[in-house]
Amino acid sequence: MHLGAVAPRLWPDVAEEADRLGFESVWIPEHLVVPIDAAGSPHEGSDHPPIPSDVPIFDALGVLCHLAARTSRIKLGTCVYNIGLRHPFVTARAATTVDVLSGGRLLLGIGASWLRAEWDAVDLDFDSRGARVDEAVEICRRLWNEDVVEHHGTFFDFGPVAFEPKPVQHPGPALHIGGDGAAALRRAAAVGTGWMPMNHTLAELPRSVARLSELATRYGRTTPIEVTIPGGAQLARIEDAEPYARAGVTRMIVAPWTRSREAIDGLRHFAGEFLSPT
User: Fold this and answer.
1) Parallel, antiparallel, or unpaired for β 157-162 and 226-229?
2) How far apart (Å, rounded) are the C-alpha atoms in residues 232 and 73?
3) How many CB atoms lie under 10 A from the CB of residue 246?
4) Domain that holds residue 243
5) Cβ pair 92, 110 in contact under 8 A
6) Is the peptide bond before 165 cis (omega within 30 degrees of 0)?
7) What CATH number is given to the structural domain containing 91?
8) Among residues 178, 246, 243, which one has the least CA distance to residue 210?
9) The predicted structure's pLDDT at residue 55
10) Which of 44, 81, 87, 269 is 20 to 30 Å apart from 164, CA to CA?
């Protein structure tokens, strides 16, 4: 279920109801800042930003801490967290906090980001963001697993540090890698629990999923990698989801309503049509 499609004041109630109804996970979008002169779009064929610069933006992992206290079973995801814009200490600490407080329910969707103006605003180089993301992921994974971590890299440099507590999930919160290109597939195959494409059509998915499987084999992976479609398709019948399953999709993020005030009723109707009784 996609929280970005409902008014923030309703997030706790919608998450609670999704938890009660048996939805598998709830996802929240993320940005650090959207400059007024921002241009471009993550969606292929779009030449304008999909969000205005004055849209209310909350700290995604802070919100998930709140929702962790309001729910008991549903998993809590980011779609996606711009990991390269923060120091790995910040990301690792916030993600660990959510994971511990939720009892291991965090699904940490991360991406290399698409908004150049956002990187300019925090005085970071947009063109080297991929390498920065790779280094940040490496550091976070070490912080989540090693007793003492020391790192001297291209973007981050620090002496020995300890990092406690460790996340509930081992070897760390589940990483879901957002993006459509070769780098995203590589990251998903190397370290991801899952892959989250944004601009793939249904017809394009099988080829990329096969490529992901090939890469995973090269990295010695033995468990299947989840494939999540953010935003999802508008599903009217259970049969509408079957082509996605055949294409390799394992999770669809849906928002079965058109207005925020209809969200609770929309969840209930969708659950009645699609979800098994819990």
Assistant:
1) unpaired
2) 22
3) 11
4) 3-274
5) no
6) yes
7) 3.20.20.30
8) 246
9) 86
10) 81
Residue 258 has which token pair? 């058109």
Taking the chain, what is the end-to-end CA distance rounded to the nearest angstrom?
17
- What the block records as the tokens of 57 is 């933006």
Say how many CA atoms lie within 13 Å of 52 toward its Cβ.
3
Domain count, the chain: 1
Cis peptide before 167 (omega within 30 of 0): no
CA distances from 262 to 14, 18, 25, 29, 250 (A): 10, 14, 19, 20, 27
Q: What is the DSSP string of 221-259?
A: --SPPEEEESS----SSGGGGHHHHHHT--EE-----SS
Contact 256, 23 (CB under 8 A): no
pTM for the whole thing?
0.94
pLDDT of 46 over the 70 cut = no
Instruction: Say what the pLDDT of residue 237 is.
Output: 85
**Cβ atoms 186, 225 nearer than 8 A:** no
206 token code pair = 């099988």
CA 93 to CA 138: how far, in whole Å?
A: 14
Give residue 188's pLDDT band: very low, low, confident or very high (50, 70, 90): very high
d(CA 96, CA 104): 9
Residue with tokens 């910040």: 90
pLDDT digits (tens, 9 = 90+) for 105-135: 999 999 999 899 999 999 999 999 999 999 9
pLDDT in the model for residue 152:
98
Closest by CA to 254, choosing from 243, 240, 246, 50, is 240
Q: Tell me the per-residue pLDDT of 233-272, one tens digit each, with 9 for 90 and over.
A: 668 888 899 999 999 999 999 999 999 999 999 999 999 9
Residues 6+ apart with CB under 8 A from 138: 153
* Residue 118 and residue 35 in contact, taking contact as beta carbons nearer than 8 Å: yes
